Amino acid sequence: MSRPVPTDGSFSVEDIVADVRARGDEALAEWSRRLDATTATTPERAVAYGDIPTAAVLAAAESVRTWHAAQRPSDIVLEVSPGVTLERRWSPLRSVGLYVPRGLVSSLIMSGVPAQVAGVERIVVCTPPAGAPAVAAAAALLGIDEVWAVGGAQAIAAMAYGTASIAPVDKIFGPGGGAVNTAKLLVSRDVAIDLPAGPSEVVVVADLGVSQDLIDQEVAAQMEHGPDSRAYVVRVGDDLEAALAEVEGYAAEHVALLGDRAESLASRIRNAGAVFVGPYSPVPAGDYATGGNHVLPTGGWARSTGGLGLEDFMKTVTVQRVTKEGLERLAPTIEALADLEGMPNHKATARR
Question: pTM for this one?
C-alpha cells in the first residue's frame, strides 16, 4: 500500500529504506524531492556537463588501475592428499553499486576503477543531484555509463533492493554521511557492503624536531572533510614503545609518520587503514594521486579490516574433487566425526 512521505520531519533512515523497498521508484523520487529538493517524478540519470580536470582524472585513474591490477589473486589447485584435489577459484562480482558523495570524483575513481579491473559486468553509480554533473562527466571518462542523480539513504535502498528503474546489485561500496552509513548497515542483512565508513580521521605522529607547520598542514587537510572529522597528534619522545601503543590504540583511518624514526615505525604499525611515511607523503597524496585506495576503515575498524582492494570486487568458489580411492581414505574420518555429531546420513555417504 502506498503511503505519503512524512512532512513533519518525523522519519528515520529505517523509514526511508523500508519505503523505497516497498514502493520503488515512486518512493525514491518522493524522498529525493523531500531531501534533495529535486523536482523529478521518477529517478533520473545524471547528465554530464561543466568542466572537470580531464588529465588529472585520467592520471589518478591510471595510478589506481596499476596498483589494483597488481593485487589480482591467483587461483589455487592442490592435491591435499592422494585422490583429494581442491581448487579455489576467484571470480568477479556480477554487479556492484557505488555510492559517490556529492561531487567527490576521487571516490568514484577509488571504487569504479578497481571494479573495472576485477571484471565486474555491471557498475551502478548513485550520487546526490547537486554534484551529479561532475561525477557523470568523470564516469564517462572512465567508461561507466549507469550514473543516477540519486543520493542519501534512498540511493542505498534502491541499489540494495531494486526499483523499476534501478536493478539491484550484489554488493554496495562507497563512503557517505551518517544517513548513508546507517542505510548501508541496515541493508547489509540482505546485500553485501564494503565496510562502515564513519567520520574521516588521521593520527599525525611527530618525532622530535618536526616542524609545527607540517603537523598543522596534515591536520588542516583532514579537517576539510567535515566538522566531525578527527585529528590526533602523537608526539614521539624517548619512549618509542609508548608512542607506538598510542597510535595502535587509535586504530585510525590514516596515520602520517613524520621525523627521523618514521621509517622504523612504519613496519610496526598494524592498526591503520593507510600509513604515510615521511614529509613528502601527505595524506591527500593518497586521497587523490598515488593509486592507493582511499576507502579505508574508520572508527576503530582498522583493528580488524583493511582498506578497499581488488579482492573486495571478487569472490571465491571452492571446487572439491575426490576419486574412489580418495573417498576410501577419507571414510574413517567422515564416519568418526559423523558418529560424534550424530549424523548417520553423513556417515552413510562415506561408503559408495
Answer: 0.92
**Catalytic position from the list 14, 254, 311, 328:** 254
Fold of 13-77+88-194: Rossmann fold (3.40.50)
The superfamily CATH assigns to domain 201-307 is Nitrogenase molybdenum iron protein domain (3.40.50.1980)
**DSSP string computed for 238-286:** S-HHHHHHHHHHH-EEEEEEESTTHHHHHTT--SEEEEEESTT--HHHH
DSSP state of 119: T
Residue 253 appears among annotated catalytic residues? yes
* Beta-carbon count within 10 A of 69 CB: 14
Catalytic residue among 201, 218, 248, 253: 253
* 330-342 tens-digit pLDDT: 999 999 999 999 9
Per DSSP, which regions of the chain are E strands? 76-81, 84-92, 95-99, 122-126, 146-148, 171-173, 192-193, 201-206, 230-235, 252-258, 272-277, 314-322
Q: How many other CB atoms are there within 10 angstroms of residue 264's CB atom? A: 12
Residue 154 identity: Q
Encoded amino acid at 43, one letter:
P
201-307 matches 13-77+88-194 in CATH topology: yes
